[in-house]
Amino acid sequence: MKITNKTLRLMQWIVSLGAMIALVLVVRNFYIQRLPSVIINYVTIRTTLATTPEEKKQGLSGTQPLKPHTGMLFLYQDKVFEPFWNRDMNYPIDVIWILDNQVVGTAVLDAQTTDQTQTIYPPQFYNKVLEVPRGTVDELGIKQGTGVDYARIVAPTT
User: Fold this and answer.
1) Which tens digit of pLDDT belongs to each residue from 93-141?
2) CA separation (Å) from 44 to 52, 77, 110, 132, 137?
3) Which residue ranges does UniProt annotate as crossing the membrane (predicted)?
4) For residue 157, is it within any domain?
């Protein structure tokens, strides 16, 4: 069987495309493995961090809906007892209050559909809050007392 120049070029193109795809996947996995993460019931949730007062006030307001197993982690230097609200929230979320490495409570925060803002209060003091897509708490069986682990998360200093 004789290989024509056209066939050879096609094979080279296919190999080059495969190499580019492999490189993109390696870079993507390298990046994903370095994202801050929360691990609950053996499931890794990739997070963005809210550590400054401005980031905490903004939260997920005005953002696009979260993808499964992603969220925003609010970090506090000390224990706090602050409510959360749904101002400018375009989609419902689950809110998970955490003290150190243990869930102390959960709640649902609905999308804001009227001019009124829904406010929810924690069941007790906490030092972390994880906001995740609505249904995550039920999907992962998260409840008061559930253990929480962290990867690549630096505690706030302010």
Assistant:
1) 999 999 999 999 999 999 988 888 899 999 999 999 999 999 999 999 9
2) 24, 23, 24, 12, 13
3) 12-31
4) no
This prediction's pTM: 0.76
Q: Are residues 23 and 42 in the same domain?
A: no
Looking at the fold, whether 21 and 79 belong to one and the same domain comes out as no
Distance CA 101, CA 48 (A): 18
- Residues constituting the chain: 158
Name residue 112's amino acid: Q
Each residue of 22-63: pLDDT tens digit?
A: 666 655 554 445 578 999 999 999 999 999 999 999 999 989
CA–CA–CA angle 15, 29, 103 (5° rounding)? 160
